[in-house]
Amino acid sequence: MATSTPTVFEGARQWPTWRKVVSVTVVSFADCLTFLVSMMLAPSVPQVLQEFRPDGSDKFLGSFSVTVYILGFVVGPLVFGPLTDLMGRITILRFTATCFLIFTIACALSSSLPMLIVFRFIAGCFGGAPMAIGGGVVSDLYPPGSRSRPMAWYSVGTMMGPTLGPILGGVITGGLSWRWVFWIAAILAGICVTSLWFLLEETHEATLVRRADSPQTSSLESKKTTITKKLRANWQVKGVWDSLGKSIVIIPTKITCHPPALAILLLIGVFNGLVNMILSSLGSVFQFQYHFAATTAGLSYIGLGVGGVLGLAATPRFCDFVGKFRPHPNGSRQPEHALPMMILAGPLASVGLFWYGWSVETKCQWMVPIIGLGVFGFGYMSMRLSTQIFLVEAFPGFTASALAAHTIFSSIGGSAIPLGTFPLYGRVGYGWGNSVIAFVNLGLCIVPLGMYLLHPVLRNERGIDLPS
């Protein structure tokens, strides 16, 4: 076990490089596990419904059993992020990972569909914690200006989880059963808990300062720097609890009073719901239309993964190009520089949806819809990343709150809207069903287009920056 907790005098930013890399890898694995488990169940939905609903009723609950996990993400970033200021990063990470392990095992032992849904929601609440804490660990380890590469390494988990989850889930379901999806997830969660106990130490400086106030460290008082004393003086439990309350109550109020940001949040909420309609049904579609075995149904997600990687690579470069092509008078990066990518990403995603839907409807060779999904994946990841860039630039000094709001809105939309997936397909088929999703997505493009055309007025009348 890691027992040599560093003192505040040799904080996390003074750790050797190998120790920082190990720490970032551990939190990246925790984040990857969160997203991996979110979609591992998707290829197993037919088997789950066959066991719990053999009469074919309540098909929408099959999709909900997948997306309800994402609804739990609303709780994790909102509550556990601020709690790290009270109890430290490592304490919350170990606690939430252990609870995630327990409720994942409970999912494997579920005896009814409602029981599975409830346990999966609770697991999502605890599983969402690394989404709020992982970035904080990176910022603890690296100073501003040196975080781009560590953040890229940390984001690998976020990117790979949703792609590998369905593939792994399909192999497990085909070779064993859907319950083994959760048993394997529990084994991975156990590895995560072990790594958090043995490989990751506390990085939160205020927590290290508090520990330095213990009797064992009183003899070192004379060695503390002025910065250390200031941090210790400002660290108050009451203040942390106040900040926790504000993060839950005040942030939504400020967002609601800020029309440009609210428009983007509503956009990503609906858009993420449309995306999860595809993600939660993809494995089942390929099993029904192309008679893929459960072991290979997860391979249908590869197109999404490849397109997503290309979208992640292209979006920052395109936003930088827009910033140079239409620079702000003061030369700074502005939120509206991310809007053109949203304007392009929306129609691209719709093209991919039309491609995918009608090729599945007409039962074209199975590689044809997967290519369409690659186009859709590029549009999806580009839209998601560009909305995050917009909020980060629009909320200077409030980036954590802005991204937490992004997670909350996308999680609510991503868990509720997919309930209509199978009823939609059952009524109008895969071709028109995905066309409806594509047309709704095209309608969303009005939001970034209107904001880009009106951004001088929005800045002058309301201001893009969130007031402190």
Automatic annotation (TrEMBL):
Q: Which UniProt keywords apply?
A: Membrane, Transmembrane, Transmembrane helix
Q: State where the protein is found.
A: Membrane
> Its Gene Ontology molecular function terms?
transmembrane transporter activity
TM segment ranges? 21-41, 61-80, 92-111, 117-139, 151-174, 180-200, 261-279, 299-319, 339-358, 364-383, 390-412, 432-454
**GO cellular component terms listed in the entry, alphabetical order:** membrane
Q: Which InterPro entries match?
A: MFS, MFS_dom, MFS_trans_sf
Task: Output the PROSITE patterns linked to this UniProt entry.
Answer: MFS
Give the similarity note: Belongs to the major facilitator superfamily.
Record-linked PANTHER family: MAJOR FACILITATOR SUPERFAMILY (PTHR23502), MULTIDRUG TRANSPORTER, PUTATIVE (AFU_ORTHOLOGUE AFUA_3G01120)-RELATED (PTHR23502:SF68)
For this entry, the protein name equals Major facilitator superfamily domain-containing protein
What is the organism field in this record? Clohesyomyces aquaticus
Taxonomic path: Eukaryota, Fungi, Dikarya, Ascomycota, Pezizomycotina
